[in-house]
Amino acid sequence: MPTFPNIRPRRLRLNERVRRLVRENHVTVDDLIYPVFVTYGQGVRREVSSMPGIYNLSIDMLLEEIKKVEELGIPGVIVFGVPEEKDEVGSGAYHPEGIVQQAVRAIKKEYPQLLVITDVCLCEYTSHGHCGLIKNQTVDNDATLELLAATALSHAQAGADMVAPSDMMDGRVAAIRAKLDEAGFTDIPIMAYSAKYASSYYGPFREAAGSTPQFGDRKTYQMDYANGDEAIRETALDIKEGADIVMVKPALAYMDVIRRIKEQFGYPVAAYNVSGEYAMVKAAAKLGWINEKQLVLETMTGFKRAGADIIITYHALEVARWLREV
């Protein structure tokens, strides 16, 4: 094989146009999903203190935010609810007039072509902050499944285009698929949080969604961050149970997992660029320590290079604008 001086890799780095010509991975607006937090009230636009630029929005203000999503060509949003009241069984999650159900109907009425994905979990709605029913101070996996399935069905009935169970209960994809199919929603895809780790990167989200556990932690149902093989087993189970898209969460510290899952299964893979990742970038940018645009676009490209087909990110609006400038 020829070597230097006949082979000079720098020839293909000569200028920006050559670099664009041979670039292997590209981030486009079509890769993006924007997470939104919806709450009750009118005229509510309450900034999350640890996530500059991200807000708890009442439905009227959410529709204004969705207008930006549409204008920028972002394919869709994933909706998280912030209820007024909570109880032991998270009844607000599956109530037909819950905040997510109302928001979905409003979005689909105003923007019928927008892809609306709903997060399916109980943690925002339970008084104890855990993702399922509590029995003997632990989450009762099997008793929780019916409530998760009821939540997913209520979202589909409200008009959701896709449901995304994030609870990490064993068997929840199968329970949701069966419930949706039984009710005639066979065309509603499931995007499963398949490899969701018990991570310190979620802190700001818990402020935004009011979902901090009131006792203990989530390590009995979310994955140990030291494990990679377990992610393969979890993903295989979700696919077998009927998942249409699989997700890795968080994304930044788990690019190896994204790559392994993509290579192993060849399924559509979503990477969730989570709240802690977003908050660190915003904090460093505020202090002038980084070039925010360059760093974020580099990170997004890293997710694509790792194998992600979909990027769920709080930077979505900014990324979409920056891509128009390229």
TrEMBL record:
InterPro entries found in the cross-reference section: ALAD (IPR001731), ALAD_AS (IPR030656), Aldolase_TIM (IPR013785)
Pathway: Porphyrin-containing compound metabolism; protoporphyrin-IX biosynthesis; coproporphyrinogen-III from 5-aminolevulinate: step 1/4
GO biological process, one term: protoporphyrinogen IX biosynthetic process
Gene3D superfamilies: Aldolase class I
Catalytic EC class: lyase
Residues that bind 5-aminolevulinate 1: R206, R218
GO cellular component, one term: cytosol
Tree of life domain: Bacteria
Residues reported to bind Zn(2+): C121, C123, C131
SMART domains according to UniProt: ALAD
Known cofactor(s): Zn(2+)
Keywords carried by this UniProt record: Heme biosynthesis, Lyase, Magnesium, Metal-binding, Porphyrin biosynthesis, Zinc
Active site (UniProt): K196 (schiff-base intermediate with substrate), K249 (schiff-base intermediate with substrate)
PROSITE patterns registered for this protein in UniProt: D_ALA_DEHYDRATASE
Function per UniProt: Catalyzes an early step in the biosynthesis of tetrapyrroles. Binds two molecules of 5-aminolevulinate per subunit, each at a distinct site, and catalyzes their condensation to form porphobilinogen.
Family per similarity comment: Belongs to the ALAD family.
Assembly and oligomerization: Homooctamer.
Protein name as annotated: Delta-aminolevulinic acid dehydratase
Organism: Desulforamulus ferrireducens
Organism ancestry: Bacteria, Bacillati, Bacillota, Clostridia, Eubacteriales
